[in-house]
Amino acid sequence: MSFEQMPQGLDLPQSGLRDNFQRGSVGEFLREKIQPGSTLSLVSAYFTIYAYAALQDRLDTVEHVRFLFGEPRFVRTLDPARTDRKAYRIEDSGLKLSNRLQQGSAARACAAWIRQKVEIRSIR
Fold first, then answer.
1. How many C-beta atoms surround the C-beta of residue 10 within 10 A?
2. Alpha carbon of 124 to those of 17, 73, 74: distances in Å?
């Protein structure tokens, strides 16, 4: 069936391509789409323990993740005005990162999740 022959009112499937800018939020898309027991196939050049922590309740329920990790060429072109600001607090000894205590536990949980469920391949 060609595009011209598609019945009126039929919704075409939307792309899963997200970029956190013009094509929508990756985190919101994953939060909506991840189902318990599912297998995910992801392609990205960027993944952090913070991304895992934000989606941990969903990611921990998947069966398996195939992650194709691309070369992060975009890092050289990051716009500092569009990156997340780190939360600091002022203490007697100086500035401290607010989520410092959570970093270690988030990293351990993310590492365990990767060992158990994630298959990682990389490309250049």
1. 7
2. 20, 10, 13
Q: Rounded mean pLDDT of the chain? A: 75
* 75 closest CA partner among 45, 49, 95, 100: 45
The one-letter amino acid code at 67 reads F
Phi/psi class of residue 3: alpha, beta or left (left: φ > 0; alpha: ψ in -120 to 50)?
alpha
Those residues whose C-beta lies under 8 Å from the C-beta of residue 48, and which sit 6 or more positions away, are: none
Q: Domain locations in the chain?
A: 49-72+96-124
| Predicted TM-score (pTM) of this structure | 0.63
**Contacts made by residues 100-106, CB under 8 angstroms, sequence distance 24+:** 102/53, 103/49, 106/49, 106/50, 106/52, 106/53
Greater confidence (115 vs 21) lies with 115
Query: DSSP assignment of 56-99, as one string?
Result: HHHHTT-SEEEEEE---GGGGG--GGGSPPPPEEEETTEEEETT
Q: Distance (Å, rounded) from C-alpha 42 to C-alpha 29?
A: 12
